[in-house]
């Protein structure tokens, strides 16, 4: 038996003591009207709080002695056989989680999948990042700190850091306040950056957060804006000074967050706001809805292929990295170029091929906690189809130039079919021509060569997500 197996067996043996209830139990707690049987020696060995309670001269707050009295010079506790210890500081569920960790050294803080929870109205919820899961983790964190179980506190902190990445902004703010009270700097940093990124105006934040916390959030936003502006200035030396545009950019982003595209239009016309230099389209793709991005594009004041920062990513690069078919579709509908390259020579199509290769070969995508296979496939097909259309258009243009007829336009039926295909409401074509299938298969083979995955496997699985 290996050391790991030995430790796992020991953990299960101790956990069975807790599960079996009264077997060898010498102490009983009452939590929310329910009895919990435990063992003093294990609790005292694993928690300074319980050690002081059972052996110390003073009774800690939160546990009350009932049915017995402290006797002896060493402060030992003696109780009648019927005596119980009421626990008033935590709930029954959290107290059981605390004991499970004390007995076994491991515990799952996430609620049971599809379990009905009082503060989660979503039917069939997996409780990975809902309000119920966040509340349970916060209560467990508070209990761990209260009972002096620092290892459980660190484990819960890591769990919360994962939850807040997908949690609602209201839950993120709850965790932000808790991490501040518990002085957990890493969790505080994660939550504060998420709140700053949310784009909620200070007056809204002030309703949920203390004034000094709101000031910290605004400071983070300012630093982020200046850093982004600095990167943009490095790539575009003639960009305006950051101080002159900072306030304008904040107003623009607040307008986008509230879907007020008309205000953005007024800023463009009346205040001379440059949407490209303000990275308005990049911001909208990353933070706003499809309707906002579409309305912003229809203003005609933003370059859909504008390269941002030293890397030179376009909005389509951002949408591809997000695996968002809605954003990919609306950008392609407004003539985003699927073949435009970053400074490192990467196209949006390359991005999606790499993500697909990672997903097929590794079962996960680095940097993305969850990827929906159907969305990834749809993004790849949308961008790949647009690339094929552009390739054919270029071939036609070359043929026209060779025939001394440079004014021949693209046929309307081909253009219309492309727009119908990019419309998510209409769905993708059910069949492709032999020529299209051949080119698509060739492009799939080409894209999978850089991912370390067998090309035949890639072609087979691309239809079976």
Automatic annotation (TrEMBL):
Annotated metabolic or biological route of this protein: Protein modification; protein ubiquitination
ANK repeat start-end pairs: 311-343
Keywords, alphabetical: ANK repeat, Cell membrane, Cytoplasm, Membrane, Metal-binding, Nodulation, Nucleus, Repeat, Ubl conjugation pathway, Zinc, Zinc-finger
One Pfam family this sequence matches: Ank_2
All residue ranges annotated as the C2HC NPR-type domain in the record: 117-131
UniProt GO cellular component terms: cytoplasm; nucleus; plasma membrane
Main location: membrane
InterPro entries reported in the protein's UniProt record: Ankyrin_rpt, Ankyrin_rpt-contain_sf, BTB/POZ_dom, NPR5/6, NPR_central_dom, SKP1/BTB/POZ_sf, Znf_C2HC_NPR-type
Molecular function GO terms recorded: transcription cis-regulatory region binding; zinc ion binding
SUPFAM superfamilies documented for this protein: Ankyrin repeat (SSF48403), POZ domain (SSF54695)
Membrane topology recorded in Swiss-Prot or TrEMBL: Peripheral membrane protein
Biological process per Gene Ontology, one example term: regulation of DNA-templated transcription
Region Disordered: start-end pairs: 231-250, 393-412, 423-465
Organism domain of life: Eukaryota
Compartment annotation: Cell membrane; Cytoplasm; Nucleus
BTB domain residues: 25-111
Family: Belongs to the plant 'ANKYRIN-BTB/POZ' family. 'NOOT-BOP-COCH-like' (NBCL) subfamily.
Protein name from the UniProt record: Uncharacterized protein
């Amino acid at each position: 038996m290996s050391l790991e197996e030995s430790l796992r067996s020991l953990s299960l043996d101790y956990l069975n003591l807790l599960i079996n209830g009264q077997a060898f139990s010498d102490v009983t707690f009452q939590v929310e009207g329910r009895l919990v049987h435990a063992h003093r020696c294990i609790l005292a060995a694993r928690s300074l709080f319980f050690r002081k309670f059972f052996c110390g001269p003073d009774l800690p707050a939160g546990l009350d002695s009932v049915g017995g009295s402290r006797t002896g010079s060493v402060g030992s506790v003696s109780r009648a056989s019927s005596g119980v210890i009421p626990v008033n500081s935590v709930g029954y569920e959290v107290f059981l989680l605390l004991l499970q960790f004390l007995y076994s050294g491991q515990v799952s803080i996430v609620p049971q999948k599809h379990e009905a929870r009082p503060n989660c109205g979503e039917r069939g919820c997996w409780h990975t990042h809902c309000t119920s899961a966040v509340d349970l983790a916060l209560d467990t964190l508070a209990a761990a700190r209260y009972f002096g179980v620092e290892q459980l506190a660190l484990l819960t902190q890591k769990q919360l850091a994962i939850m807040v990445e997908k949690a609602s902004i209201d839950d993120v703010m709850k965790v932000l306040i808790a991490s501040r009270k518990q002085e957990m700097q890493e969790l505080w940093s994660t939550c504060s950056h998420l709140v700053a990124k949310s784009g909620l105006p200070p007056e809204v934040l002030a309703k949920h957060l203390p004034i000094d916390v709101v000031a910290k959030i605004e400071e983070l936003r300012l630093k982020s804006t200046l850093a982004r502006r600095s990167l943009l200035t490095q790539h575009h030396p003639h960009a305006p000074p950051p101080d002159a545009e900072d306030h304008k950019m904040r107003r623009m982003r607040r307008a986008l967050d509230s879907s007020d595209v008309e205000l953005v239009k007024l800023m463009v016309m009346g205040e001379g706001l440059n949407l490209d230099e303000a990275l308005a389209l990049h911001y909208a793709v990353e933070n706003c809805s499809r309707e906002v991005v579409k309305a912003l594009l229809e203003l005609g004041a933003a370059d859909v292929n504008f390269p941002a920062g030293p890397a030179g990513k376009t909005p389509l690069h951002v949408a591809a990295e997000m695996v968002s078919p809605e954003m990919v579709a609306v950008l392609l509908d407004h003539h985003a170029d699927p073949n435009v390259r970053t400074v490192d020579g990467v196209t949006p199509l390359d991005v999606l091929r790499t993500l697909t290769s990672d997903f097929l070969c590794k079962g996960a995508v680095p940097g993305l906690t969850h990827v929906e296979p159907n969305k990834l496939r749809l993004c790849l097909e949308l961008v790949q189809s647009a690339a094929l259309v552009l390739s054919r258009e270029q071939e036609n243009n070359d043929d026209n130039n060779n025939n001394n007829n440079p004014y021949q336009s693209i046929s309307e039926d081909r253009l219309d079919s492309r727009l119908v295909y990019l419309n998510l409401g209409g769905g993708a074509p059910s069949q492709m021509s032999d020529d299209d299938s051949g080119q698509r298969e060739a492009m799939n083979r080409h894209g999978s060569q850089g991912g370390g995955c067998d090309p035949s496997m890639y072609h087979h699985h691309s239809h079976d997500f």
